[in-house]
């Protein structure tokens, strides 16, 4: 009975009303503070930075009070100039707040060098071609040469020069295959 008497007492009700008023005031104050400090509804449009060099990107972003961070570039894209912007996050046209960081991915200076794998010589053309294509190389001319093994790879060439296992070539290079024609028996 004492609990019910206390809950309905004037002291408890005054304290409860006071606590609710303070809670509402704190929530209202916090929301107003967030409104002021977060620049609510004050946004700018992200510019399209693709194909621009880094110095031009820096000027554009500085004019708009934006910052940048460079992400590691994945692979070379020949349609874009070297060291130009390949991708950006957030995308162009999105609305962001002032001083937002724009994450950009740059195009490297060229294709990476890829090592010619071991054990390609004397393998069949059907085995070697997919291996080279999977590494990013292009298959050039097929040069037939007299040999006992029909369809076996005798040499790999790049621009007329013989290449060996362990040599490095730029990805997307064209490799000519010297293939045995099976004429020696």
UniProtKB/TrEMBL annotation:
Family annotation (InterPro entries): PASTA_dom
Transmembrane segments: 12-34
Annotated PROSITE patterns: PASTA
Keywords of this entry: Membrane, Transmembrane, Transmembrane helix
All residue ranges annotated as the PASTA domain in the record: 40-108
Protein name: PASTA domain-containing protein
Organismal lineage: Bacteria, Pseudomonadati, Bacteroidota, Flavobacteriia, Flavobacteriales
